[in-house]
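PT: before anyone asks, these are the final sequences, not the draft ones from last week. 252 residues across everything. Please model them as a single complex and drop the result in this thread when it's through.
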Amino acid sequence: MIALDYRDKRPIYEQIVEKLEKLIVCGALESNTRMPSVRSLAMELSVNPNTIQRAYAQLEQDGYLYTIVGRGNYVTCEAEWKKGRVQTVLKEFTEVLTKARETRVPRGELMALFDRIYPEKEGENT
Amino acid sequence: MIALDYRDKRPIYEQIVEKLEKLIVCGALESNTRMPSVRSLAMELSVNPNTIQRAYAQLEQDGYLYTIVGRGNYVTCEAEWKKGRVQTVLKEFTEVLTKARETRVPRGELMALFDRIYPEKEGENT
DNA sequence: TTGAGTGTATTAAGAGAATTAATACACTTT
DNA sequence: AAAGTGTATTAATTCTCTTAATACACTCAA
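LR: through. Structure below.
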């Protein structure tokens, strides 16, 4: 299902989270698909079950999985995890904007950046 | 000049950076004021000189201090450190906005947040 | 009901980065 | 030249993060 890179400095669970997230986002793992069990994936990757558990917990936190105790982990429906992604970004956006206001950054400078990065196109959805 | 809190989990140098930054931002330490020497402040706080050195280096990095080797550390002029603060925020703003675009967050949602947090007032400077 | 499967919680060991310290060097001024 | 200043290097230490070991709790099917 996935392969680990031991030259990678980052922790194992983080690599797993990243790869599974990609699989979900790109559609390779469809909604309500059952994920491999904590133990089986741990076996497959030659890793401690807790490491997988941690990765799954993170993915659940991020809205990509849901858990049924005693049964397994499942992929959240697409609309839901997409909503989660948007909300995460909106929260970050709010924080930066608040900080900008406190720093008295002129509104115009922000507007200029906004228009440059997010150009307004004709006939675009909301 | 400042006091340390040993119950605080954060590293000492970070506490020092934060407190000195506040003193500069609030105007208690004026532009071109000479800071205490690395050794004297270390003595005063019963801390290793390298710890102070590190704090000063950070403050220099952030644009609050400038150094003259053999002479001492001095507070940057106000216009300059203010400019640094603004640029830091603008960079963060750019990053979040780029991420938002990648996530396909609708432009309208960002605009709405923007207008709410940064209300446009009549007769305001740029 | 029991056994094999599942996720969960707790505790501890290990590794590695971050922090701080010790010490020597280089520059400026008097 | 001496006393004060910042700087660089190296090492010891602390501490968080990561991973592992192990026991517990729930679900389902035989």
